[in-house]
Each structure stands twice: as C-alpha cells, then as structure tokens.
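Summary of Year 1 activities. Much of the first year was spent building the evaluation harness for sequence design. The harness presents a backbone, in tokenized form, and records the residue chosen at every position. We chose the following record to illustrate the format because it has been used consistently in internal testing since the harness was completed.
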C-alpha cells in the first residue's frame, strides 16, 4: 500500500485548508473560504467536519509532519474561547471571535463540542496528555446541558431545529441531519469516557441517550427509506435531500444503543442513497444538487443558480468507497477534478450561465433572494441591521464577480466560493475512505490517485 502517495495527496488538500486559516491569539481561525472570498467567516459546521478529517489523519498515521494535529489544536482553542458562558455556540464567527451569526441554528452547540472532543481523542491517539483536558471537558459538559435544556424535546425524544446545514426554514422541525449531529456528539463523549477514564462524569447528561438514539433510528424512516425531516406539525417531508446520507456520514452505528433499525434492515441506507442520487444527480453538470430548486418556495435558497455541491458529492464518494463501490467513487472524484482551478482549488457549488441569468431575473433583481436569506422565521431575534447589510454586501460582490466571469471572461460554467475549505476536507476524507477499504480488503496495490489530478 502506497501510504506515502496518499499522504502526498492529503498534503495538497491540507495546504489549501491552511490558506483558509489564520493564526490569532484566540487560536486558529479556520475560514470557510480564503479571506477575500464569499464567506470570510468561521462556521462551526465546516470546522467540525474538518476536525474529523484532522483526527482521522492523526489516528491513521497519515499526518507525518503533525500539520493536521497542529491545525486541530488551534481550532479547538478558538472554539473553546468563543463558547458562550451558557454553553452555546452560534452560527458563525469573525476573525476576532466576534459573533457574526444571522440564523438560529441549533446544531452548532454540538459542532463546537465535537471539535473539542476530536482534539482530545487525537491527543489520546498520540499518547499525550492534553493540558486543556479539564477545561475542555467542562465546556463539553456545558454544551450538553445547554442543548438538552433548549433544543431537546423530551416528549418526542428528538432535537428541534430552526435551520441546520441548509440555513433555511426548509429544515424547521426535526431534521435527520441535526439529530445525527447530536448522535455523533454523544458517541464521541462515550469514546472520551472510555479513553480518559471519565466514569460518571457525563452519566446524568447522557441518561437519555439510548431513548434518543432509538427514536432517531426509527422515526426518520418511511417505506424502507429515510426522510429528511419531520415538520414541526408532525408531517413527513418526503423530498430528496443530501441529508439522507446523515446516518452513514455521522457514523451513527459507532457506539449506538441496542435495537438499531439499521441492523434489522440495512437496505434502508441503500434505498435512501439510491433515492437521493436518482432525484438529485445533475444531468448537465454531473454530481449532486443539495435539494430540488423550487424557486417560488420561500424556504428554498438557490444561491447564484442551481447546480451540484462539491462537498456533498464528495460525501457520496466516501459512501461508495466504504461499501466497496470503488469505481463509482473514482468516477465521482474524477468529475470533481474537472472543476478544480489551476491552483487545485475546489469550489462550493457549480451552476451555468443560463441558470445564473434565470436566478438574477427571477430572484435577485426582484428581491426574492434577499427575502429568502433574511426570512424572519430563521433570523436571530433582534438581529442588528448591520449584519444584514454586511451579508448583502458579500452577496452582491459575489454576484458581480460572476457577471464579470460570464460577460467578460466568457465562462459558461460558474464556480461559486473558491476554494471552499469544506470541499477539500470531504475530498480528502474520500481518499482516506478509498485507502481504508482497499487496505481492509487486501486487493493488492492501490492506485491512490485514481480519479485525481496527477
């Protein structure tokens, strides 16, 4: 197995991730994109997903220079510093740790704690005692307490969300994504308890865990597939969505309780992924859309024209590799590679000139896009208008750049938010998933860069 070649490819993505990071007194600021791009903010969601990659690299001996661990340590420090006294983390932060949140988003309290847990577990893997252990455990405990008090609905045994991964009311109610984020959070706590001998520390907070896991494993299933959401009034939301991958992406079976429905019927995952791909695959550009683009729906954001999203497509590649569908995974990474820039940057999502022009005509120029972005149902109460103006500025700046790319640069395919740190994270995870599958199955020499640029 050519582990050295894998490390070389991972380093390429890590170098792009480094370009999205800034060292500050509060820790490492891991921006969603480079500072001058569309999202000059720190998102707990993106950073949490990145922390899982960094921990994987440490635990699988794929971090020879210690760069992934160093970034993880700095990111954990930053999130420990910006946690509110209550135990809460918000939607996003500025360079100096200032709260820049616009949307109510309940899964961030789990993301912040996941980052701290991944750092502590990476320390354990390196056989070193973290100086921050007691402080971080206290912060994790406060996060559980805050989430249970404010987001958990005891009568239904699920976490409620206003927005989540899509940052719109399309998720309001009980979403499969948010509830699996919390499953990952609690499973990481079990790992911390075991490795750091923390018996009893989280017993009170996690007394509900089995009940909760069983509810998640059973209530998001209808007709042998997952549904993306149970609405706030109890209806099943049957529309296709990339969040149908949540159970496999968040590894919900690691540390799960007894009577998991996925043990009883593993076809549920296959059925769900197939349904998602059949409905969301972009026939023109390839790869996965995140959901279907119902323009007139106030809860459905289009963002510069509909098209495939790279990070979710790379998650699908991970699934294919984990299940042995190596050729499918390779095909997906190959399609992503087609849209890399000369610097090797991967965007957030793609669209076309025609779709962008339709978006401008139907949404931007008539103010519908702004109404969606600042829909009162999803905004933080009493949000300062300064935050809205700042967001509108970055929206307009990005759309003006696309206009320039189209009408002056002659582009017909639009690459939005380049580079997106999260896209590089998920691509790197796909490479690791490919390596792990073929290592486990001993299929001989592995071409680690199949589907990747040489």
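For this record, the design step produced the sequence shown next.
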């Amino acid at each position: 197995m050519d582990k050295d070649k894998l490390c070389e490819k991972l380093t390429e993505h890590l170098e792009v991730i480094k370009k999205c990071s800034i060292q500050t007194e509060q820790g490492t600021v891991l921006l969603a994109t480079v500072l001058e791009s569309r999202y000059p903010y720190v998102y707990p969601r993106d950073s949490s997903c990145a922390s899982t990659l960094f921990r994987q690299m440490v635990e699988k001996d794929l971090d020879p220079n210690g760069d992934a661990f160093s970034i993880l340590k700095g990111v954990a420090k930053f999130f420990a510093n910006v946690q509110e006294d209550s135990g809460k983390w918000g939607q996003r932060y500025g360079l100096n740790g200032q709260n820049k949140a616009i949307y109510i988003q309940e899964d961030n309290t789990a993301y912040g704690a996941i980052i701290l847990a991944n750092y502590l577990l990476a320390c354990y893997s390196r056989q070193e005692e973290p100086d921050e252990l007691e402080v971080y455990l206290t912060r994790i405990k406060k996060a559980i307490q805050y989430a249970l008090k404010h987001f958990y609905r005891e009568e239904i045994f699920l976490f409620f969300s206003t927005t989540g991964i899509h940052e719109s009311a399309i998720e309001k109610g009980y979403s499969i994504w948010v509830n699996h984020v919390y499953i990952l959070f609690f499973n990481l706590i079990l790992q911390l308890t075991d490795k750091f001998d923390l018996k009893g520390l989280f017993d009170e907070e996690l007394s509900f865990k089995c009940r909760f896991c069983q509810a998640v494993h059973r209530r998001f299933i209808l007709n042998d597939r997952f549904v993306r959401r149970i609405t706030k009034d109890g209806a099943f939301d049957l529309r296709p969505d990339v969040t149908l991958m949540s159970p496999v992406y968040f590894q919900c079976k690691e540390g799960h309780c007894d009577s998991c429905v996925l043990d009883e019927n593993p076809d549920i995952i296959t059925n769900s992924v197939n349904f998602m791909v059949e409905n969301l695959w972009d026939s023109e550009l390839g790869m996965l859309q995140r959901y279907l683009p119902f323009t007139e729906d106030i809860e459905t954001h289009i963002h510069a024209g509909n098209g495939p999203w790279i990070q979710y497509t790379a998650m699908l590649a991970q699934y294919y590799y984990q299940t042995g569908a190596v050729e499918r995974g390779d095909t997906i990474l190959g399609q992503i590679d087609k849209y890399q820039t000369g610097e090797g940057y991967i965007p957030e999502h793609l669209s076309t000139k025609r779709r962008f022009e339709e978006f401008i005509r139907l949404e931007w120029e008539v103010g519908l896009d702004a109404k969606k972005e600042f829909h009162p149902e999803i905004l933080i109460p009493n949000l300062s208008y300064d935050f809205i103006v700042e967001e509108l500025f970055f929206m307009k700046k990005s759309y003006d750049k696309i206009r320039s790319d189209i009408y002056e640069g002659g582009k017909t395919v639009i690459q939005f938010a380049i580079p997106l740190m999260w896209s590089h994270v998920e691509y790197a995870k796909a490479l690791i998933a490919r390596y792990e599958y073929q290592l486990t199955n001993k299929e001989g020499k592995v071409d680690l860069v199949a589907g990747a640029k040489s």
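Residues 370 and 392 are 8 Å apart (CA to CA). Quantitative recovery figures across the full test set are reported in Table 2.
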